[in-house]
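SAMPLE LOG
Freezer: B-3
Tube label: C17
Construct: single chain, 111 aa
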Amino acid sequence: MIVIKNKASLQKMSTAGQLLNEIFREIVSEIRSGVSTLELDQLIARLIKEKGLSSKTMGYMGYCHSSCISLNDEVVHGVPSAMCFLERTLCRYGTSILCRHNARRCEAICS
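STRUCTURE (predicted):
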């Protein structure tokens, strides 16, 4: 069933998306050689909290991270770990937040 959104719902979706976009812009500079995927996840968690948002992935079915991060040929939805980015590492990361409405985003970047 498709739910048709009203203007108020669309505005909430837009606001949540804009806040998530701000987070993604801030973390791009941290995706560099020597930084671990766990460090990147901790930064994402801090930014989510600083913006007064809540993570939709943290605690979901026991998951204890604010994001999913996979490198190179790892399958999507990798679990953050001590694995570090190397030069020319392909990184796919994503998260989901709640800000009066759910927003999800994932992105790929090469370090």
